[in-house]
## 1
Amino acid sequence: MDGNGRWATSRGLPRVAGHAEGVTAARGLVRAADAVGVRYITLYAFSTENWNRPEDEVSTLMRLLEESIYRELPELMERNVRLRVIGRPHGVPLPVRRGIDHVVHETRANTGLTLLMAFNYGGRDELLDAFRALARQVRAGELAPEDIGEAHVSGALYTDGVPDPDLLIRTSGEMRISNFLLWQIAYTELWITPILWPDFRAADLYRAIADFQQRNRRFGGV
Amino acid sequence: MATTASLTLEIPRLALLKRLLSTLVLLPLFLLIVVKAPGWIFNALVVIASAAALWELTRMLQRASRPVYARLGVVAGAGVTAAFAVGGMTDPFMFPAFAVVVAVGVILAAPVWQGTASSEATATTLLAVMYIGWLLGYGILLHRSSPRGDDLMLFLVGVTWVGETAAYLVGSTVGHHKLAPVVSPRKTLEGAAAQIVASVLAAMVLRAWLLPSCGAAVAVAAGTLLGITGQVGDLAESAIKRSVGTKESGGLIPGHGGVLDRIDSLLFNLPAFYYVWLAVGCA
């Protein structure tokens, strides 16, 4: 969800206004994806590197998140959406964590779209955590190093049980992955658009999906 | 059955029967191609319709002794339409824009090998390419812009045709006040109003069936817009026909006139609806 800050700055608004608009765009995306039967969406809300932003931007962002997560709960329930969070829980302000945990708990039995929110997330951190978990199993004698397969790594990631993404959409024209789902996106199709996240509309999602449907996925074969 | 009686006054019974039969054969075929056939068959159908309409338009111009590069117009226009089927969706206008640039260049250079220097032929050929080739390309674009492209297409075509039919039935039975006496003397204000009302009603019904994720307000707005732009498209084609002194664009579809007569409203409604979809994007 890149481009909130730029979107606001280009309109002469404070960066925080862009984040508020970004929440609206995210809500629209969930509705649009739900309408065409998408099963899983992962939103990159806040990376482990985002803590380096100016302190007042970070604290306002946290407050915005805390507010919006409660506000969205009724619609998530109505749409049968399940919220999951991927990322490290440590370091997240307690009120925000409580809010997230509450919504995750309330929606745990929903069977529709699964919305994964990458929060305080870093792709390398996720791999490190997975390797540590596997190493602990090896040390405990539950797993032999030569038996470690792709399934073990996948199962040790935050996204355990979630299929690898088919399509990765990156907004605001950035031509890099930025530490996102590094293991999971091995064969994910990329869709990069210059549109800034607050301007991202349902029609843009559908264009991306329509484009994806026309691609020939070979997974390394011919 | 006052309706039937006054209808038969307007057009001979046989023509009406022909029209009905053509509809009964062509409509299910069209629906089948939109819903069941792979995308490229739909695209091919649109390009063929584009070429046929371009051929009719250039023939009309030629019959009225207006200068036009007929073959060039058909090829360039169909090429522009086909270009909408090429390329990715990040920049869907990249190839169509390229095709237009090539078409404009070739048409302006045509006098070099055609042996006639006629700016009027250049103008009429460009008219054909942009009016039919470019506008009909939005049919391909709308259809492939969304995973719900089939539903968008059925919605648009349904609203347009219901609106047209309502305008025809109401206008030819109770219509009195002329809408555009110079361009199309048989069109009435009553028919125009009926088209807008019927388009809104059709949009509301079709929305509930085809596009449930769009709100009712979207349906009302889209129905109103399509009811208006469709008529403007119809009048625009009438104006071209009037300027060359003909009533039907051709005889390809029995009882319906030509292909261009059938798609005149769609030519305006396709781009209008594409931009509505782009702004609202609910399907």
## 2
Amino acid sequence: MRAADAVSQLRPRLSLRGRLYLFSAAILILFAINVGTSLWGSFARNESSLAYQEAVTAAQLTAELEQNLQTKRQQVLVLATLRETTDEPLDEAALEQARADLEIISERLRQLGGFGGEELEAHYRRLHDSVTALLAEWRQFYEQYNADGAIIAVESARSYNSTQQRLQELDQRQSFVAVQRANAIDRTITLTDQITVIGFISSIAITLALVFAMIRSTNASLTRMKRGVERFGSGDLTYRIDDQRDSGEIGDLARTFNEMSAKLQIAIEEMNTARADADSANAAKSMFLANVSHELRTPLNAIIGYSEMLQDELGDGLDIDREQFHHDLATIIFSGNQLLTLINDILDLSKIETGKMQVSLEVFSPAALLVQVCDALSPLLSQNNNRLVLDIDNDSMRDINSDRGKLQQIVTNLFSNACKFTKEGDITVSASMTADALTVAVADTGIGMTQAQQDRVFEAFIQAESNTGLQYGGTGLGLAIVREFCTMLGGSIALESSPDEGSVFRVTLPAGPTSVRASA
Amino acid sequence: MSEQLILLVEDNEVNRDMLVRRLERAGHRVSTAGDGEAALQNMRALQPAVVLMDMNLPVKDGWSACEEAARDGSIKHIPIIALTAHAMAEDKHRALEAGCCDYATKPVNFPELLDKIATCLNASR
């Protein structure tokens, strides 16, 4: 087996359904990946935009805070100058307003603390400290403003400057963070765009590859199937579709086609065998008819020929040789009897074949019958210079209950067969009995038969060779009749033979119940 | 005509005896052979004017004997009339193909057989 075959047997391809499932699953996964990438992209954009907006809001707050601080400082400086020159106190409303302003600044500062996160935490902390200190100084300035003789300190020398500086630092830091975030947004957008495009393109590519692979593999399977069905259709039923390369439906279909082909093949073989049998039976019948015609004509030839000749002799007025005349008439009678036997054989076989042959049982002595038959047939021995050996085991012989006529015909047929196929040899007729069976054997030292000839010799219309009838005469009916008679009498016939060494036909018949008188 | 020899080839003793006697009564000289091989030997030795050949013969059948006679320069001119109990049309065809000049079916119609013998003798003369 080739390695490729081994592999394809170990890993049969996916079934069509399996392929469709796999294909759909792959498409769904790709779709999910694309959607996920897209969602992640927009989420990232949102996050970045939020962070940017935060940075912008924080920068605005910072600017407002700076503006508020500047305005308040102007007011404080103006108030301080007024106090020194006019010594006019502030009314309660103005003080309230000033405290509210300071509160607003404080509020802004807290708001600013909510933005920026860790990146701005340190800067905010420092700004918070400075602004808180500055506000505390300004609050003190307003508290002491109306007090007499109070030394008005606008602020400590470096409070405002330091606050200003911290504000600027925070501002710079915020700008830096905003730029960073803007860059991050750009990068994120670029990245998600790239991922989306790559995912989309690769999805299309993978889908196309899957579609192509599926079309190809399915098409290959169907093409194999089509090729197989075409071969079946053209009559090549020994062809088999390779059903190992597909599992599932297509593999099943291939196997079903193969089974169909195998069954068709068997059916066609059976049909051919039946037709051959019928042809052979037909040919055998034709051959039988030809042989029957031949066999009927041979004695008729003698009968008609001798009769015409005797008629001529009577008519020519010469003296008639009475002895010769008698001999010629005997020949006519012999040929007539031969013809009768032949016709009887044909009728017997026809009766047997149509199931009309009757068995008539009687009690008789088989030993006496054998002696009688051998006596009657002794003229046959002289035809080929054969010698008869009669070997009857008289000690075991007794009466049997069987069909006398049929046993007589069995022995006659076997005997005349033996005479026909033996030249200058021995024909041995032997008989013996057991408690319940009679065995009669007719052995010859004649031409014998091969195994193939023995297998067919009992068939009706068959002789050992198709030209045996031509050489030895006979219609091929004798042994067929013998076998049928043996079967009808509940017995059997066995044959031992080898070419050039002779044949032994051994008939075994049941002795039958002799105590009860059977109807004749 | 009566001086000419007819060779009768027939294995069946009864039929051979009958035909010999009838042919002799009809004024022919008759010699006999019992099988195909003996027939060829007699044809070569006796050079008969016509051969009546049974086709179903022991040792060598009539068809083989006819074919062999047709190949033998010394006897191929001798006309052979096939005599056979095979009465089917293809048997006649087969006999003529084997080189027989005519064909007679058993049981023999004797006057017809005499005509056929005469025809063959005239044709070969």
